[in-house]
Every structure is written in C-alpha cells, then in structure tokens.
Automatic annotation (TrEMBL):
The lineage of its organism: Eukaryota, Fungi, Dikarya, Ascomycota, Pezizomycotina. Residues 405-429, 505-524 are annotated as: Disordered. The keyword Transmembrane helix applies. The chain crosses the membrane at residues 12-33, 475-500. GO terms for cellular component: endoplasmic reticulum; membrane. Residues 405-424 have a biased composition (Low complexity). The keyword Signal does not apply. This is Calcineurin-like phosphoesterase domain-containing protein. GO terms for biological process: GPI anchor biosynthetic process. InterPro entries: Metallo-depent_PP-like (IPR029052), PGAP5/Cdc1/Ted1 (IPR033308). Keywords: Membrane, Transmembrane, Transmembrane helix.
Length: 524
C-alpha cells in the first residue's frame, strides 16, 4: 500500500472520525453534558433534576411530587433576519454586465469598443463579484443561523420535556419589512426554526380576558404550542406601531394581549379555598409609554390591563401569576446591561417613542400594580401577588427583585449577578423579574427553564429557574464543517483505495499473461 494512502487512512481513523463522533455527540446531546434540566420540587425522591429528567426518558414511574407540573421552556429574541441584511439586488445581480452590448454599439471603432468592454469587466470583477460573494456568504449565514436556532429548540424540547414553550418577542429582525418578507420569515419561523411547534389558537389568544381556564397537564398539546410574545422588531415601538403591523403579527403568531389559567390537577374547588392555579399573562408592553402612533392600539393594551385588574380574584397563596412581556421594567443604570434610555421620532413623524431600553417608571408602576397588586408607596400589609415576570429585549439577560418602596415606584436590586454588593435578599413583598438571555449565537444560544409547583405543606406556589446555553454559533458551524470534511476525506480514501486495489489486480493479470507467453516459447 502506498505511503500517501496509509497517511490518509491514519488521519481518517485516528483523528477525523474520533473528533467528528465526539464533537457531534456533544453538540446533539449538549443539554445532557451541561446537566440541563427543569428544577424539581424539594419533595422529589430523586433529589436531582437531571436524574428526574433521565428517569422520564426511560419511562420510569414517577410520583406527582417528583416532577414540577408546570415546566416552561422560554427563549429570548431569536430575531430572524432576511432580505434587509442582504446586499441590494440579491445574489445574482451583475449591473456591470447589463446593457454592455448597448454601450459597445454606441462606441465607434474597435479600440473604443475594447475600452468599454474592459471598463465594464473591471467593474464586474471589482464590484459585482465582490457583492455576489458577500451576498452568498450572508445567505449561507442566514441559512445556518436558522438551523442553529432550530437545533437549540429541538434539542432542548426533546431533552427537557416542557409542558409549555414561549418566545419573548423579537421573533423577527425588523418591523420595517414588507408584508411579503414578513410572510417569508414567518414561514421560516414555523417550518424551520420552531418546526413542530404550533401557533396558540385564536380561541385562546382572542378570547375573553379572564375567561379561559384549563386543567394543568390535561391538554398535552400545550407542549407543542409556542406562546409568541410581541417585540419591537415585530411591530415597532409605540411611535411606529401601526394597526397593519399588529394585524399581520397576530395573523401569523397569535394575539398580543391574552391570558389563561391552569388549574392544578387533582384539586377540588370549594367556596372557601380557591383551587391552586397558574395565571399566564401575555402582554404587549411596547405601547404602554407615550406618545404612541396608534391611540387605538394603546387603548387596547390599557383596556386589557384594566380587565386583568378587574377579573383577577383577591390575592391568594393558591394563585401564581406569570407575566410574559418583551420590554423589561424600569431599573437604574448599572443594575442590568442596558441602562434606561428613550428616544423619540421628530414631530414630522408624530413625535412618538422611537426606541427604549426599559419601560418608564410610571408604566412600570402601572404594570406592577395592575397585574401583581404591588403598590408604591407601599401599603402596610399589602404585598405583591405571588408570581414572576419574564422579559426579553436586553440580550445579555438580567435577574432582579422588585421591592415596594416608601417613596419611589419600585426598588429593583440585582439577584444572582456579579454585582453582589447591591444584591438584596427576596422578601414576601418582593417580585422577581428575569430578563431571559437571547438565544442568538452571539449570546451563547441560551434557553430558560422555569419550574413551578404547589407546596401543600406551605399552601402556596414555589418556583425555580435556570438557564442552559448551547454555545456560540461557531461551535455549530465547526462541528458540521468537521463532519463534512470527514465524509469527504472518507470518500477520497475509499476511492483511492479502490484505485490502488484495481491497479494491483491489473498488474497481477498482466504478470500472469506475460509469464504464460514465456513458458510457451520455452516449450517450442
């Protein structure tokens, strides 16, 4: 066997195949290697969320106390890009070659015609080819990004087995795209990135506020539905949110303001004690602040909050409220990565909100009081409803507790952050807000895991949250690139080996024929 072929086989068998198998196994089983799992109740017999999840995959019998009945898999800001990120004209656009025949005809003489052709060809190589290469690279990048995000959703959903799934806004990358491009990106969202997921039906998202109620876990289809929260890149901020943009979002992704209650299984309602339930609220917070371009849409959002306020029963330990919205609540600079920031359109464009990092202090106060009953200044004996707020928008993520203040709308403090000097412990009056880190590759492909369970010993709901990261998108590209190289390398080794074997057979046949002729000559 030739030495080059031996070297090729050595590299394939000893380096490429082992690396490819190990890296691919890690990539497609990363939640297992990272020990990602929904937190378990403290009453779980397995004492380990990871072992609990593993037991579910082996179909082992688990008691109701082993697994949280509500498990929300939540993603932040996928921001699917499209034609707006591609060079003008697309991939196969060569303006330097268009009309070149007409330019040649307009010039007399062979020399002049040659100069025109040379000039246009130079522009073709210097501009058109460069633009085509950039467009091809960006097209490939968009394609790969879709499958990277799809890999995160598919792998996390397969391993963790959520009861519910949500995306916290900025599903798409721009509110300024055309209706045709919106449809294209919507199709990519449902048929590629969140393939297998289902839009929450209009009977739920367009129904009566406070009227929807189901038994938790009875409808297993919730594990395949994707709750889509509206973000600024989907419909715009208050200053550029139009009814047309809102309508197309709701047509493709579902309603912007809606709620539903999930009653705990095995509980009986009586007149004295309401059954333990989870109140899931999806809110369009983008037009809570003013000025707004569409007063009608803003009125709908505030009407929804008023209906939540009027239909929510008195505070009870048996209730747990989960608010899903895009914009984080107000926080002083330094608490999270994004500081408070507002920008407004010029008066010629209506003067509305053009950009914001947080809700204003006033809007935050309204939201906390309407949804959670947290009043500031604090009222003695009146704490916030038991619950949690999940937001997006700040791609870095954040984790804070809000406390009712004696003088200001709320007093947020970071929780479980590097800035430990300002960390304040949670109290019965506090309310936790988690800004879920973006699932985009630049932020590590993050996913949030929220578990909630009812403690019969305490008579109230408890919860726990953790995140799980796939790693930056370069790992996804690198592993699949290595797999491609390994397959090509194997094909080269296989073909080279075949050629070597065929050459040996040919030489053997040639040697036999020559030997036979020599023997016949000796015999003569």
């Amino acid at each position: 066997m030739s030495s080059p072929l031996v070297l090729l086989r050595f590299l394939l068998l000893r380096i490429l195949i082992p690396l490819s198998v190990l890296s691919t196994t890690w990539l497609y089983l990363y939640p297992i290697f990272h020990l990602c799992a929904f937190p378990s109740p403290p009453t779980s017999n397995l004492h380990s969320p990871f072992l609990n999840t593993l037991a579910q995959h082996f179909h082992l019998t688990l008691s109701n106390d082993d697994t949280a009945p509500f498990r929300l898999l939540v993603f932040g800001d996928p921001q699917l890009e499209g034609d707006t990120s591609l060079p003008a004209g697309g991939l196969l656009n060569f303006p330097s070659l268009k009309g070149i025949l007409g330019l040649v005809r307009d010039v007399e003489g062979v020399k002049g015609k040659g100069e025109v052709v040379g000039r246009q060809l130079s522009k073709f190589l210097a501009e058109d080819v460069v633009r085509a290469v950039v467009a091809a690279r960006k097209t490939l990048d968009l394609w790969g990004n879709d499958f990277y995000l799809a890999h995160i959703y598919r792998t996390m959903r397969w391993w963790t087995r959520p009861t519910h799934v949500a995306v916290l806004g900025d599903l798409l990358g721009s509110q300024w795209i055309s209706d045709e491009e919106f449809k294209v990106r919507g199709d990519r969202f449902w048929n590629r990135v969140f393939r297998g997921g289902r839009r929450v039906g209009d009977d739920t998202t367009m129904g009566v506020v406070g009227g929807g109620a189901e038994v938790l876990g009875e409808d297993e289809a919730w594990g395949r539905r994707v709750v889509c929260v509206v973000g600024n890149h989907d419909v715009g901020y208050a200053g550029d949110m139009t009814e047309e943009r809102a309508e197309r979002f709701e047509r493709v992704f579902g309603g912007m303001n809606w709620d539903i209650r999930f009653q705990l299984q095995g509980t009986v309602h009586n007149t004295t004690t309401p059954p333990p339930s989870i109140h899931l609220i999806t809110l369009n917070s983008l037009n809570l602040d003013t000025p707004a371009l569409s007063a009608h849409l803003q009125n709908k959002t505030y009407a929804f909050l008023n209906q939540i306020l009027s239909t929510t029963p008195p505070k009870s330990k048996t209730d747990f409220t989960i608010l899903l919205t895009h914009l984080p609540l107000h926080k002083p600079a330094g608490v999270c990565a994004d500081p408070p920031f507002f920008d407004f359109h010029g008066q010629e464009y209506g003067g509305g909100v053009r950009e914001q990092n947080h809700l204003s202090e006033a809007s935050s106060k309204v939201l906390l009081e309407a949804v959670f009953g947290m009043r500031s200044p604090a009222v003695a004996g009146e704490g916030a409803r038991n619950g949690i707020i999940l937001t997006g928008h700040d791609h870095e993520g954040c984790d804070v507790y809000h406390y009712p203040s004696t003088s200001s709308p709320s007093s947020p403090h970071p929780y479980n952050t590097t800035n430990a000097t300002t960390t304040a412990p949670p109290t019965p009056d506090s309310l936790r807000e988690i800004t879920v880190r973006s699932m985009m590759g630049d932020y590590g492909g993050s996913a949030g895991l929220l578990s909630a369970w009812f403690s019969r010993q305490k008579g109230e709901w408890e919860y726990s949250y953790q995140d799980c990261r796939a790693g930056v998108q370069h790992w996804w590209w690198g592993v699949h690139g290595l797999d491609f190289v390994t397959v090509v390398w194997w094909a080269v080794v296989w073909m080279a080996g075949g050629l070597v074997r065929e050459g040996k057979r040919t030489r053997r046949r040639g040697g036999v024929r020559k030997g036979g002729k020599r023997k016949r000559r000796k015999a003569g």
